[in-house]
Amino acid sequence: MGFQQHGNSELGLSAIALGSKNEYKRMHSDLPEGDDDVLQQEARRNSTRKYVIACATFASLNNVLLGYDVGVMSGAVIFIKEDLKISEVKEEFLIGILSVISLLGSLGGGRTSDIIGRKWTMAVAAVIFQMGSLIMTLAPSFSILMVGRFLAGVGIGFGGLIAPIYIAEISPNTTRGFLTTFPEIFINLGILLGYVSNYAFSGFSAHINWRIMLAVGILPSVFIGFALFIIPESPRWLVMQNRIEEARSVLLKTNESDREVEERLAEIQQAAGLANGEHYEEKPVWYELLFPSPSLRRMMITGIGIQCFQQISGIDATVYYSPEIFKAAGIEDNAKLLAATVAVGVTKTVFILVAIVLIDKKGRRPLLFVSTIGMTICLFSIGVSLSLFPKGSFVIALAIVLVCGNVAFFSVGLGPVCWVLTSEIFPLRVRAQASSLGAVGNRVCSGFVAMSFLSVSRAITVGGAFFLFAAISSLAIVFVYVLVPETKGKSLEQIELMFKNEHKRQGSEIELGDVEVQQLVQDKTVLTD
After folding, report:
1. How far apart, in whole angstroms, are the C-alpha atoms of residue 236 and residue 147?
2. Which residues form the Major facilitator superfamily (MFS) profile domain (predicted)?
3. What are the structural domains, with CATH classification, of the chain?
4. Predicted TM-score of the model (pTM)
5. pLDDT at residue 508 tops 90
6. Nearest residue to 155 via CA among 106, 111, 112
7. What are phi and psi of 42, to 5 degrees?
8. Which of the 8 DSSP states describes residue 429?
């Protein structure tokens, strides 16, 4: 399977030139002769950049909630076990159920965002999560704790799905990868805050400390409410609702020239026209997803596959159960265990910055290769260190270094790029709901890993579990090599056309070349080859 490589083309809708390098040519060709106009253009460029970054930042706040829950629960569960007297099976269930329940939010989030918009779906997510966090904080028993956990999971499913889609739909082509990594950045920030919260409040009594830890997770929801008054609706969703002038108004704020605004709007209108059935007999979205055309099937294999590999390679086991890993290495004191997890959180957060810098310069595939290869080596080495060496200071140091190395490689590629790809490869008509299927696969795999890690570790040892993760991670390398295309610098509409025009390739490179937008007009069907 491969992707046909196209050369730079100057043909297109209304003779508009599009391509990976033409963004810059277009920008500079619009610069007027006078110095004042040049300064105005530069001022607009800076203003646009700041506005889009602000939108991406506010849209990503929901992801802090997911990250915080992941980080805080790794430590809070130590004290929940002591306070509520729960078994190891209930511990696995408590941790893993969030991921399983979040798939309900993911499934509902795609359809909800198509009806009420991307922006207000994020608001619904924040409200549901806030309710869940409050119930968990006040829970007098394990049963009530699980009710709160259920609501928190639904909220996380809604928010985690929509943020990358929203950001991809408002971002300029040349910075879309950079901006779409923001949700992953905020997940990492949330994980770090959760670890810090565990360490900061661990000194309180076991009846109080875990409740404080969970209560702190309510705070980001307040900022999300504020953000709703600042961020606009997605221009692509507005076009789907035939609110063209509103879409143009948003594009004027997120693109650097009037000409570029009209080009983007023309592309979106044409894609939305096809998606709304102007050129073919309209079918329900669910029918298209259940019986996909060959091109949509390839998109779904790529999108859902990369989402599943992100989780079954064991990242949630590393993050949720890092205290268990360090305990297996020889750390026994709870305070020292939680302090070690802070190092994991710091590493995971710092290395996401590498992805931010490189994703639009080097592309998606190179980062995925570095990430999956590095993770495979670290996971295998963790298995070796815990299986072949006795507990002691050497193994403790080695385990901390290797766990930090694993999360670092994850943050460089598989963590952020997974969500970037899923948000940009699907056609406009099915984007939200197809992305929700990818998020469901992600959450199911996350829940499976989180709910089985302790049992698997008891059966084959902690070291054996990491040998298993290393084997799965090695398969991810093959998956990326064979099935993941390079989407750097292309508009969402161009990426859609590339999947439709895919041919068998010779050699090892998968490259999405320049695409003539004129094909959008010529195509008689949406997702047929």
Report:
1. 36
2. 55-488
3. 44-231 (1.20.1250.20), 292-489 (1.20.1250.20)
4. 0.66
5. no
6. 106
7. -65, -40
8. G
